[in-house]
Amino acid sequence: MREQVIAQKVGNRSGMSGQRRSGAVTQKPARREIEREPLTARFRALLNYFPAFLKLAIAIVIGVLVFLGYRAAASASFFQLRTVEIQGTTRLAPGDVQTIVRQSVNKTGVWKADLNGIADRLEHLPWVRTAVVSRVLPDGIRVRITERSPRAVVRTSAGRFRWVDEDAALLGEMQPTDEVPAFFLRGLSDEDSDSARNENRDRVQKFLELQRAWDAAGISDRVSEVNVMDLRDVRAQLAGDNSQIEVRLGSTDQAQRLQGALKALDSHDDIPNRALISYVDMSLGNGKAIVGLTSGAHTTTDGSSPADVPATDLSSESDETKTDQQKQKSDHTAQPAPSHAKANADNQRLAPAKTKKDRDDRTKKADKKSDKSQSGTHRKQ
Description:
This protein is of the alpha/beta class.
């Protein structure tokens, strides 16, 4: 009997060939890399197939589409004005700024707003020196204001009191809550021209110069207002008990001349007709003060040393050039003379006696004349 030996199969799942197959590295075919060209190059190559006129038509269509898109975006409600931010206002009313901004932007929207035009309109407001306007996208406008600084109060020709700055720009009216300055400015021109504005600027500069000098000398409270209409003839109206007196200061050394005039007045407190003084002219510049009275008379005193001048020098002394008639008129206006009144009373008492005596004399003369005529008649007979 023969034995059959069954040999183990090679390559089964548990054999050695399985182990070799599991540990071996499987090779895969390499991918072929496709070389891709840039998009711009491909687009350029595509355009080469189109003729020139077609390229131009495509460019025009693209431009029109961009323009229409811009207009649609600019006019959309997305850019309509909703907020206005205002900075830097103290005296200027924010409502005035709001009104100008909204009037300018509501029709155009924030995106198309004319910022320079809005700034120009704002700078025409009285208190505005400069205005900077910017967009706050999508629906806001920001305004930065630099206000003018009030430096003096001017009394206008219409009698209104308004603030002005160093450039003589008229600002708002003086309010009851504002601090009252020591004295007011007077004499600015109302003309709207470049020359008038330059002259007003010089007048304000002169006023500020006098204000600083009189503040340093401590005499600002003695002045009510300063008239600088003519810079060659600056005049100061006094305040307090001397409010009727105008001091004429001329064109130079106004601070020293005002001090001299005040010293001349203060050294003669016992003047009986002090209320009749209308002006003190210090414009001669030689230390002399010409004191004018309401009657038209004037006298000259030494303003540099007022203590040495007697009080009678400031009395109502007539001018040498006046006529006798003007002198008599001023004397009668000031006070009637007692001697004239007494003479008038005596004449009234003697009038009846004188009239009776004249009547008797006329009667006697008539009788004598009749007697002479009768005697001549008898002789003829």
